[in-house]
Amino acid sequence: MIYLIIITLVMLLFLVLNFIIPHIAKTLWKRRFLNRVQKSGKIFLTFDDGPDPINTLRILDLLKKYNIKATFFVIGENALNYNELIGRMVAEEHKICLHGNNHLHPWKVFPWQAMYDLNRCKKILISYGIRNKYARPPFGKLNIFTMFYFWFSHLIFVHWNIDSLDYKRTDSKQLGEWLKQRIEVGKIILLHDGRRAGTSAGEITVEGLKIFFNDCRFDSQVFSALP
């Protein structure tokens, strides 16, 4: 009986340390960050899971055409494989930020694995001369190790207040119309230039953005990369 009690207490302690405390920290950081976004007078387009040799290239072409700056939360392995796209992002003054090396879910691996995954991505970006204060952990989740990694590295947790769910959509026209209806000043939008297994085709995002930009009611200067 005593062993069962000890095991239960250990499991409860792990639950509190690895899930509940990081979730509280994330909620506080998220609230503070989104308050700044809402007061910014800007629109922030953010792209996760790239770079991708086809879709990121097409998105960069669109952003250049409309003179819009954006923020890319890149996967470290993709950054290594497609370093020419990283170079173009830098040259065209987009912001490049951390999103992990292999997109590990912080709750589905050992806590230190998720921290190492973020740090590996950081080192890859540093090797390209890219140093910044912004990071978005995979799935927008933290565990106890990644929470302290953010804290001690002085990273800013970047959340979103519009999730396009573009990786689930199968109709680019529907996505474009959805973006036109919901995007406004003071919003940070989650999109994906990269794709993982089991998600929809990346061209859905590209074509949806094309529809949005073709009939955009905002001046290009309203759009901004993270400062």
Question: Brief description of this entry?
Answer:
This protein is α/β, with parallel strands linked by helices and 227 residues long. The protein has 8 helices and 7 strands; from the N terminus they run H-E-H-E-H-H-E-H-E-H-E-E-H-E-H. Helix 2 runs parallel beside helix 8.
Describe the structure.
- The protein is an alpha/beta fold.
- The protein has one domain: Glycoside hydrolase/deacetylase (TIM Barrel).
- The protein contains eight helices and seven strands; from the N terminus they run αβαβααβαβαββαβα.
- The strands form two sheets. It has a five-stranded parallel sheet, with helices on both faces. Strands 4-5 form a two-stranded parallel sheet.
- Helix 7 links the parallel strand 6 and strand 7.
- Helix 1 packs across helix 6.
- It is globular and about 65 Å long.
- The termini are far apart.
- The model has no long low-confidence stretch (mean pLDDT 94).
